[in-house]
From TrEMBL:
The lineage of its organism: Archaea, Methanobacteriati, Methanobacteriota, Archaeoglobi, Archaeoglobales. InterPro entries: TusA-like (IPR001455), TusA-like_sf (IPR036868). PROSITE patterns: UPF0033. It holds the Pfam family TusA. SUPFAM superfamilies: SirA-like. This is UPF0033 protein. Residues 4-28 form the UPF0033 domain. It comes from Archaeoglobus fulgidus. PANTHER family: SULFUR CARRIER PROTEIN TUSA, SULFUR CARRIER PROTEIN YEDF-RELATED.
């Protein structure tokens, strides 16, 4: 699993970081995004669905969101 720590970054930063990371990993790998920007919890899942990847988990931690995505293509 690759972790993208985008806490402190604001939209669209966390999404852009995740997209960049997804391009670098192999199909089947999992990318976890940590984001303190609440809009990431909505924006990233929307993008993942459009892009054809799998949204594994969206979870609110103490003061940030944990968003887990599996690359499918």
């Amino acid at each position: 699993m690759v972790v993208v720590d985008a806490r402190g970054s604001y939209c669209p930063g966390p999404l852009m970081e995740m997209i960049k990371t997804l391009k670098q990993v192999e199909v089947g790998e999992v990318v976890e995004v940590l984001s303190s920007d609440e809009s990431s919890a909505k924006d990233i899942p929307e993008w993942v669905k459009k892009a054809g990847h799998e949204l594994v988990e969206v979870k609110k931690e103490d003061d940030y969101w944990r968003i887990v995505v599996k690359k499918l293509k």
